[in-house]
Design brief:
Length: 331
């Protein structure tokens, strides 16, 4: 048995707590909100977001970061990307030196365009964390119910990746190890932007042909940018590339796809995000991806059009028309 501190009490944090306790580990969950601590403690779960997922009584909920992570063998970070730097600073006084840091956050830091593992490493440098990125096609709603799922634990430290594999893997949750941490992070962040585009197409009333085009041309764009940033092209053919992209573009569990549907139906991005009632990571990642594409001179037409719809008030139908009428190309 290991002590695991989960930082973040959203639906994926709760689902992972359920999985880890089933694996025999002791779990503590930190959240900033005392009211959420009370609600989660009373229900032993989140019946609104994850109905039917009941956590074991031994799971502890707390607003005290020290109580959550000081004795942890591994700390699992499951929060929106916009809060990663701030939360890493809160963790720093309490983080056990040399402990595993499992990063499940997906996105890019908007101000620096940095992958989140770089942000964490910068803030926790004195603690020498063993950072592992855990990513792949894994909706919380299905992980919590024990639906068979496969995911990747990627790290520059393969011993750390194998340790995470050992902690998380069970008969319904298969964990592969990988070494291309940059590629796994970029795949997890940028697929949300393509899912927004797929949702917009759904909202406009387009069909399966359009969705397939978005997915296949989207993975080509993600791969081009990933390679430009030092990732391995092969990574994007795996679970955290095409696998995560398929599930995020196709499922109604996907908050990014749902937000895209609302935008395609005429809502602003603010209205769409309010309707989804959860953080839509693809909005922030769209800006970061667009700026990275400009910086590294990478052609990313789908992500460019998503950016223009979100931040330049371009009509979604015009964006799709401009994608279709681009100069003739070979695949």
């Amino acid at each position: 048995m290991h002590n695991i501190g989960i930082v973040g009490a959203g639906s994926f944090g709760i689902a992972l707590a359920h999985l880890l306790t089933d694996n025999g580990h002791q779990v503590s969950i930190w959240t900033r909100s005392p009211e959420r601590v009370r609600l989660l403690s009373e229900a032993h779960g989140d019946p609104d977001k994850l109905p039917g997922v009941i956590l074991q009584p031994e799971v502890r909920f707390t607003c005290d970061m020290g109580e959550a992570i000081e004795d942890a063998d591994a700390v699992v970070l499951v929060i929106p990307s916009v809060y990663v730097r701030e939360t890493a600073r809160l963790m720093k006084p309490h983080f056990p030196e040399g402990a595993l840091l499992v990063d499940c956050a997906k996105g890019l830091e908007e101000s620096t365009l940095s992958p989140l593992s770089d942000v964490i490493r910068e803030e926790l440098a004195e603690k020498d964390p063993r950072i592992v990125v855990l990513s792949g096609p894994s909706h919380a709603e299905e992980v919590g119910r024990g639906v068979p799922t496969a995911i990747v634990a990627a790290s520059n430290d393969q011993n750390a990746a194998r340790s995470v594999q050992e902690l998380f893997m069970n008969p319904t949750f298969r964990v592969y190890t990988g070494s291309d941490m940059r590629g796994v992070e970029l795949g997890g962040a940028l697929k949300n932007v393509i899912a927004l585009a797929a949702g917009v197409a759904d909202g406009l009333g387009y069909g399966d042909n359009t969705k397939a085009a978005m997915i296949t041309r989207g993975i080509a764009e993600i791969t081009r940018l990933g390679v430009a940033l030092g990732a391995e092209a092969e990574t994007f053919s795996g679970l955290t590339g095409i696998g995560d992209l398929i599930v995020t573009c196709a499922s109604m569990h996907s908050r990014n796809r749902r937000a895209g549907i609302f935008i395609g139906q005429g809502m602003s991005k603010e209205e769409a995000c309010n309707e989804v009632k959860m953080v839509v990571e693809g909005v922030n990642s769209a800006k970061g991806a667009y700026l990275l594409a400009q910086k590294y001179h990478v052609e990313m037409p789908i992500i460019t059009e998503v950016y223009r719809v979100l931040f330049e008030n371009k009509r979604p139908a015009d964006a799709v028309a401009d994608l279709m009428l681009r100069d003739k190309k070979a695949e």
